[in-house]
Structure formats: structure tokens, C-alpha cells
């Protein structure tokens, strides 16, 4: 969890506990080595067995699939410009697309256009989990919020 989520949660709990005159005292951070030392000093007894018997409870499993990967690139030269997009599905299937841009543009514009084409295609096929890869420094240094 991020710090802001944790602090929001703590603030809400603080307000709930305030009506009962309970004061929240935050716990100090435990250093990793201290925890490791404690576990080393207090080993689990050998006679303890882990039980996988869950009486009267359903065990639910959520299966997650890895996200698709999208690679994009664009290039421009005096005779024209083009853009390419390659998708790799979670099963490893490769889907490649190339586009000829009708207007002359800079390399940066061709890179942007390749990214836009790829994202539009992902939206059209309702692919919401996507890792995007490209070599454009312009695109990589731009802050994105989707």
C-alpha cells in the first residue's frame, strides 16, 4: 500500500476510535534484522504441523493471467514516415501491425503516432492489462496517467 492510502486509513480509524476515548499510538518501525533475530531465537516447534484442513469453508482461487505486451516504434525520413506496433498475448502469440503515415512528420511525432495507434488498438480489443515498451526517449520521459 502507498503511504497516502495508509495515512487515510489511519485517519479514518482515529476518528472512529475518538468517540470511545481510545488513543492511537503508532508502532515504531521494526528493523528487518530484529525480526530475523526474533525468528531465529524462537523457532517453530518440530511437532507443529501445518494443516490444510479447512472445515466448512470454501477456498476461493483467483486466476490471473499475465498482461499483454505492446512494443511500438516510429520512424521518419525524407520519403515518408511509418509506425509499427507488435502485441504479444499472454499465451505468447505475436500480432504485428505496420502503418504508413500520410503526412511528413518528425521522428518524435512518428513515435507518438505509433504509441497512439497501439493504445487505440488495445482499447478496441478491450485489452486492459498491457505492458508498453518503446525506445523513444521522448515518450519514456513524458509523465503518463491512464
Automatic annotation (TrEMBL):
InterPro entries: RNaseH-like_sf, RNaseH_domain, RNaseH_sf. CDD domains: RNase_HI_like. Residues 64-146 form the RNase H type-1 domain. SUPFAM superfamilies: Ribonuclease H-like (SSF53098). Transmembrane segments: none annotated. GO terms for molecular function: nucleic acid binding; RNA-DNA hybrid ribonuclease activity. This is RNase H type-1 domain-containing protein.
Amino acid at each position: 500500500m502507498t503511504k497516502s492510502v495508509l495515512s487515510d486509513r489511519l485517519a479514518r480509524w482515529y476518528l472512529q476510535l475518538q468517540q470511545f476515548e481510545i488513543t492511537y499510538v503508532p508502532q515504531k518501525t521494526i528493523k528487518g534484522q530484529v525480526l530475523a533475530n526474533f525468528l531465529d531465537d524462537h523457532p517453530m516447534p518440530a511437532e507443529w504441523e501445518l494443516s490444510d484442513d479447512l472445515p466448512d469453508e470454501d477456498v476461493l482461487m483467483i486466476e490471473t493471467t499475465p498482461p499483454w505486451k505492446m512494443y511500438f516504434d516510429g520512424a521518419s525520413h525524407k520519403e515518408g514516415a511509418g509506425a509499427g506496433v507488435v502485441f504479444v498475448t499472454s499465451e505468447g502469440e505475436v500480432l504485428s501491425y505496420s502503418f504508413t503515415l500520410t503526412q511528413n512528420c518528425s521522428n518524435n511525432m512518428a513515435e507518438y503516432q505509433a504509441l497512439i495507434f497501439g493504445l487505440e488498438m488495445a482499447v478496441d480489443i478491450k485489452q486492459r492489462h498491457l505492458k508498453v515498451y518503446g525506445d523513444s526517449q521522448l515518450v519514456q520521459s513524458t509523465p503518463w496517467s491512464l
